[in-house]
Structure formats: structure tokens, C-alpha cells
Amino acid sequence: MTDTTPYRERLADDPQFRDVLFVVIDFEGTTPKGYPAEPIEVAALGIQHVPGRGPMPSGLSYQSFISPPQHAPLAIRDTAQTGITSADLAEAPAARAALRALDTILPTTPTLLVAHHAPTEANILYAYRAACPHLAQTRIVDTRLLAKHILPDLPAYDLDALLAHHGIPQPARRHRAMDDVTVTAELFRRLLTAAARPRAITSLHDLVRVASRTPRATQPTQLELP
Questions:
Q1: What is the model's pTM?
Q2: Structural domain containing residue 110
Q3: How far is the C-alpha of 141 from the C-alpha of 169, rounded, in Å?
Q4: CATH number (domain holding residue 104)
Q5: Order of strands, edge to edge, in the sheet holding 38-50?
Q6: pLDDT tens series, the chain, 226 aa
Q7: Residue 222 lies in a domain
């Protein structure tokens, strides 16, 4: 792990940052024509600041295959990208059940989600907000936005490009949810360290302001006119 001394001296001085649990989340999915993406796998990994060590695994870990609905079957291209097969999904729970199970293990302490290119995760959580209200109403810190704020001159900000920039090895199973969560968590740690050096981010408030968006589930619902 990289030297976190600058990170410890600055960002970790914020009590709100020290108390928050970050839950890195990733979905793998299938995108049927004419419909939004549907998840076929989800993984989540908790990380939290440890004095003198920086952000470290918290012990929260979750992974589940998800059986897609009939209108969004697993496609050949999905298997080619993820390695997930129909046999993997044969006994998998539906999205509502899988996300409800994840929702129930989230603590009541302050929590922020973390994802790379967070709109994908945000849209799925919003679609299943009745099953996972806690998740759907939790802000997501987007490591893509964070990287753009801290490293404004990079030629690309996709996950592979940022892993290469930071010297983070590609996971054994890229495009599997837990492997992607693990490297996204390491990327997040590296970005926090980089943010601390020029004092680009010195508080949880700064982090939320520059790298997250308000969840749709927390916004007022507009009634449609008859």
C-alpha cells in the first residue's frame, strides 16, 4: 500500500471522515434492448479509517449472483465479458432478494457508497429502491469524479486507465463484481492519499461535494398531471 502519511495528517483529522463507513459496490449486468440494465451479480466491501493506517477493510463483505428477469436474459456477450454463465445464475436469487439481503447488513452508522462510474450503480439501486431503501438513499462517491478532480490532466478516466496510472494490477477476474470492488477500493485509497498531498480534499464535506451526487430516492417525487 502507498505511503499514507499526508492522508493521515489532513483528511483523517476530520471527525466525520473518521466515523464514516465506505461501502464499495459494483454490479455486473445485462442490458436488454429497450430496457435499462439488470444486475446479474453484486458485490460490496466495507472500508473505514484506522488511525495510523488509513482506510482499511472493515469486515463487511457481500457477494451474490442475481437471476435476471425474463425480459433481460443473460446474453452471449455478457458471458464473454464477465465469465458468468447460465449455470451460475440457475439457483441465484432475484434482484429484490439479493439487494434486500445486502441492505439488511448495512450498519446504522454513517455510511457512504463508493463506485466507479456511479450512475450505473445508482440507477440499479433506484430501480430496486423498495427492496433496498437504505442503499438507494445513500450517497455514492464516484471514483471517476474524484480522479477527475485530483488528476485533471489524465487522458482517460475509465477503471482500467486509472488502475494502470496508479500501478494497481488488473484483478484475476476483471468484470467480476468482487474483483472489481477490490481494485476500486484500492483505487479509492490511492486517490484519498493523492488528494491529501496538495490539500485538495481536507474533509468529508469536500469529498462529498466534489465526487458524489444526491440519490434520486431522496428527492421529492413530482406528481404527474392528469
A1: 0.91
A2: 5-217
A3: 22
A4: 3.30.420.10
A5: 54-65, 38-50, 21-30, 111-115, 140-142, 212-213
A6: 444 444 444 788 899 999 999 999 999 999 998 999 999 999 999 999 888 888 889 999 999 999 999 999 999 999 999 999 999 999 999 999 999 999 999 998 999 999 999 999 999 999 999 999 999 999 999 999 999 999 999 999 999 999 999 999 999 899 999 999 999 999 999 999 888 776 778 899 999 999 998 899 998 765 544 4
A7: no
